[in-house]
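Lab meeting, item 3. Inverse folding demo.
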C-alpha cells in the first residue's frame, strides 16, 4: 500500500507580515511607561492591533479537520495558556502591579483560567472559545452530500448553488448565536472581539482569498489618516473603530507590496510565523523592563530608545526560552511540538 503524503499548504506571507506588525505593537504598548507617556497612541493601537489579530485568527482557523485534530489543537493552546495564566495570576497576587490581587484563592485561580482571564492571555482564551464555536457551526455531518441533498439524485447547478448558500447562511447564523450566548449570556467573551473573529471567518468562507477582501492600494493611507484625525474614533466597538481596523490592514498590505529589504523581510516573516511564543513569554520581559528603564530614559528621555531596546529584549528573550525548550525536548510537553516554526 502506498501512502500519499499531503503537501503542507503554503503560508500566506502577507498574513505573517500582519501578525508581525500586530505582535510588535502589542509588546510595545505592554510597556507601562510607553502607554502612560503616549496615551493617545496607545488608544489608537488598542483600536486595531488585537482586533486585527482576531480577524486573521478567524480566517486561519481550520474547521475541516477531524474532531480529534480539533481537540489536539485546543489542548496545545490550553496547556501553555493555563500555565502562563496561572503564573501571571500568582504574580499579580505578589507584586504591586496594576492588576494586583489582594487575596488569591483556589477558586479565584480557577475562575481566571477557565472563565475570566486576567492580564495579556485573554486572547488565547477568546481564540479557544471562538474556534470551538466556529468548528461546531461549520463542521459538515458525515455521510451527507450537498450535491444530492439526501435524495440520492444529483441536483441541477442552480439548485445546488442555492442550497449551498442557504446552508452557509445557516452556519453563520448558528455561529453568531453561539458567540452571542458566550458574550451576552455567559459573559465569557467581549462582543467586539467575537465580532472580529466572526469577520475573519466570514472572509474565509465567503471570499476565500484574504487579499481579495482588503484592497492593496495607496489610497487607504489617506483614508486611514483622515479617520484617525479624531481620537473619538479610537474604539474598536464602534463603526469608526472597525474602519480603522480595515484601513490599517489594507495599508499594511500595501506597505508589504513595496520593496522591503530582504533581510528585514525574512526577520519580519519569522516573527509573524512565531507569534505564539511571543504572546506567551513577552509579558515576562516587559515586566523586567522597568528595572533598566531609568537608565535608558536618562540617556534618551523620549522613551524611543527604551521602546526599541525593550521590544528587542522581549522578542529575543521569548525566542531564547522557546529555543531552549526545543533543545531540551520540553516543547513537546508544553506545545505538543517544537515551539519555533523555522
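The presenter then showed the designed sequence:
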Amino acid at each position: 500500500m502506498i501512502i500519499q503524503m499531503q503537501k503542507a499548504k503554503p503560508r500566506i506571507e502577507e498574513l505573517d507580515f500582519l501578525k508581525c506588525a500586530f505582535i510588535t505593537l502589542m509588546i510595545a504598548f505592554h510597556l507601562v511607561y510607553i502607554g502612560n507617556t503616549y496615551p493617545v497612541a496607545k488608544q489608537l493601537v488598542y483600536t486595531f492591533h488585537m482586533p486585527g489579530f482576531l480577524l486573521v485568527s478567524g480566517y486561519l482557523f481550520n474547521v475541516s479537520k477531524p474532531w480529534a485534530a480539533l481537540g489536539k489543537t485546543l489542548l496545545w493552546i490550553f496547556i501553555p495558556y493555563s500555565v502562563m495564566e496561572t503564573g501571571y495570576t500568582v504574580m499579580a497576587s505578589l507584586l504591586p502591579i496594576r492588576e494586583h490581587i489582594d487575596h488569591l484563592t483556589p477558586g479565584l485561580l480557577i475562575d481566571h483560567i477557565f472563565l475570566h482571564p486576567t492580564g495579556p492571555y485573554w486572547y488565547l482564551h477568546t481564540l479557544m472559545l471562538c474556534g470551538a464555536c466556529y468548528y461546531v457551526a461549520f463542521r459538515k455531518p458525515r455521510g451527507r452530500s450537498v450535491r444530492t441533498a439526501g435524495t440520492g439524485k444529483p441536483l441541477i447547478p442552480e439548485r445546488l448553488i442555492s442550497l449551498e448558500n442557504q446552508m452557509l447562511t445557516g452556519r453563520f447564523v448558528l455561529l453568531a448565536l453561539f458567540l452571542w450566548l458566550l458574550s451576552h449570556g455567559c459573559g465569557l467573551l467581549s462582543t467586539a472581539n467575537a465580532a472580529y473573529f466572526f469577520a475573519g471567518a466570514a472572509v474565509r468562507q465567503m471570499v476565500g482569498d484574504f487579499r481579495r477582501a482588503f484592497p492593496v492600494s495607496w489610497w487607504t493611507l489617506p483614508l486611514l489618516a483622515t479617520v484617525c484625525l479624531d481620537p473619538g474614533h479610537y474604539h474598536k466597538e464602534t463603526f469608526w473603530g472597525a474602519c480603522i481596523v480595515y484601513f490599517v490592514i489594507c495599508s499594511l498590505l500595501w506597505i508589504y507590496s513595496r520593496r522591503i529589504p530582504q533581510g528585514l523581510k525574512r526577520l519580519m516573516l519569522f516573527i509573524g510565523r512565531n507569534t505564539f511564543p511571543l504572546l506567551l513569554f513577552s509579558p515576562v520581559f516587559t515586566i523586567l523592563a522597568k528595572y533598566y528603564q531609568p537608565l535608558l530614559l536618562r540617556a534618551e528621555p523620549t522613551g524611543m530608545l527604551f521602546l526599541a531596546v525593550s521590544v528587542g529584549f522581549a522578542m529575543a528573550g521569548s525566542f531564547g526560552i522557546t529555543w531552549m525548550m526545543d533543545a531540551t525536548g520540553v516543547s513537546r510537553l508544553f506545545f505538543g511540538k517544537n515551539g519555533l516554526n523555522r
